[in-house]
Design a protein that fits this description.
There is one protein chain. Helix 3 packs parallel to helix 18 and helix 8 packs antiparallel against helix 18. By secondary structure, this protein is mostly helical. It is globular, with a radius of gyration of 22 Å. Strand 2 and strand 3 form a beta hairpin. Helices cover 59% and strands 2% of the residues. It is built from 19 helices and 3 strands. A 3-stranded antiparallel β-sheet has the order 1-2-3.
Length: 426
């Protein structure tokens, strides 16, 4: 058990619960938002209706984790960020080692998981495999066992915390196995408990890494994708399923299914596909003028430039900036990465002149694929699995907090078109 992390959470809960109770009691009828018709038809876009303390995403700030802008966390390990997500504090050396040791102890994957994955057709999408593997471990759920035994509601967070740590600990080995199975990379590589969580993942993937820079990239990747509020498709799905008191295995498997959509986590592979297709179409590494002409023709035909625009942000996604800075430091001469830089210098101006894009700036997906591609991970169908492994950290933190705070069943009210027509006519 991650003793220090659990003790920290336990010490924080009485004050957090009392604060939430007092706010609801004293301001329970205060109007916090208004809903207009276009939001109802626009997928509830922007409606304030959830509490998420792990992170926030501002129009002009990007991702902020527990009050810290993401660009100030790029030198941290994913384990440190997970601790931060849960407690609002970065761990000291003792707390970090305690958490890492606990994850190592939990990392053994049940043997039947390998049987389940091996029974799937080899050409099954890697995200289906990841979701299936997580779901197959549901029989291990401490949350379900304790719930069936009648555990008190205010203690439900503890077995949820256990389930989440088990999933985090095992997810990297499962994901690495999926990569090697799907793309003929050879036998599974055993974990190395001397490595941190992200470096061990890189090790098990088997990517050539003579100078250790791929391990550094994995640390950065898993930090940058770890959390992004709770209103995005995957996090919201995770919260909705969990609010019915489903355990972490049900909730995270459902969340990963949402993440697999092309408007969410699958977008990173689409962005790399776009860059590679542009180079193939032009026939060589393009000049700035050729990139500009190619993108302008796309826009003129009603198509989009993959990786540009974001549902919330109205600035360059700071996670893109982190990847861009990393690429400039480590692989400045890589041809695919240089095209990412060309697009960044050219596309926003084209979109602003077109006048249709609310956000002409790149999002995180615009750059991450080119870095992975450089290291030989050319199988972009796998990229969303990397996203999923990272986002499991955020899912885990939000699930634990939701049960600790005893959040209720999520059940928004739906209305009929007839009701809308009547209200619109008033």
């Amino acid at each position: 058990m991650s003793r220090i992390l659990k003790e920290k959470l336990t010490s924080q809960l009485p004050e957090l619960r009392e604060e939430a109770k007092t706010l609801a009691k004293n301001f329970g009828t205060k109007v916090m938002d208004q809903v207009v018709l276009e939001q109802i038809y626009g997928g509830m876009r922007g409606i304030k209706g959830l509490v998420c303390d792990t992170s926030s995403v501002g129009l002009d700030t990007g991702l902020i984790i527990r009050g810290i802008p993401i660009l100030q966390l790029t030198d941290k390990l994913p384990e440190e960020v997970f601790y931060l997500l849960l407690t609002g504090e970065l761990p000291d050396e003792e707390a970090l080692k305690d958490l890492q040791s606990d994850l190592n102890k939990r990392s053994e994957v049940p043997s039947y998981v390998w049987d389940v994955l091996n029974s799937l057709p080899k050409d099954t999408h890697p995200m289906v495999m990841l979701s299936t593997a997580i779901m197959s471990m549901e029989k291990e759920s401490e949350f379900r066992k304790k719930y069936d035994e009648g555990i008190a509601k205010d203690k439900l967070w503890e077995p949820m915390f256990d389930d989440c740590l088990n999933i985090i600990a095992r997810s990297t080995q499962i994901a690495a196995f999926i990569y090697r199975k799907c793309f003929d990379k050879g036998d599974m590589i055993p974990p190395d408990p001397s490595l941190d969580w992200a470096a061990n993942f890189a090790h098990m993937l088997g990517i050539k890494d003579d100078d250790g820079s791929f391990k550094k990239l994995m640390r950065l990747y898993l930090v940058l994708h770890s959390d992004h509020e709770s209103g995005n498709v995957s996090a919201f799905t995770c919260q909705v399923v969990s609010s019915a008191l489903s355990d972490a295995y049900y909730s995270m498997s459902a969340a990963l299914n949402g993440l697999a959509g092309p408007l969410h986590g699958l977008a990173n592979q689409e962005c790399l596909r776009f860059i590679l297709k542009m180079r193939e179409t032009i026939g060589h590494v393009p000049s700035d003028d050729e990139v500009r002409d190619y993108c302008q023709k796309l826009l003129d035909s009603g198509k989009v430039v993959s990786g540009y625009g974001h549902a919330v942000l109205r600035i360059t996604d700071p996670r893109f900036t982190a990847f861009l800075n990393w690429g400039k430091e480590h692989i400045p001469d890589d041809e695919t990465f240089r095209m990412v830089g060309q697009l960044f210098n050219i596309v926003p101006d084209l979109l602003m002149k077109q006048g249709k894009a609310k956000d002409p700036w790149p999002n995180v997906d615009a750059g991450s694929g080119s870095l992975l591609y450089h290291y030989g991970m050319t199988e972009y169908k796998f990229y969303t699995v990397l996203f999923g492994v990272s986002r499991i950290l955020g899912f885990a933190a939000q699930l634990t907090i939701a049960r600790a705070m005893q959040f209720p069943l999520i059940r928004p009210k739906s209305v009929t078109t007839e009701w809308i027509k009547k209200q619109a006519a008033v």
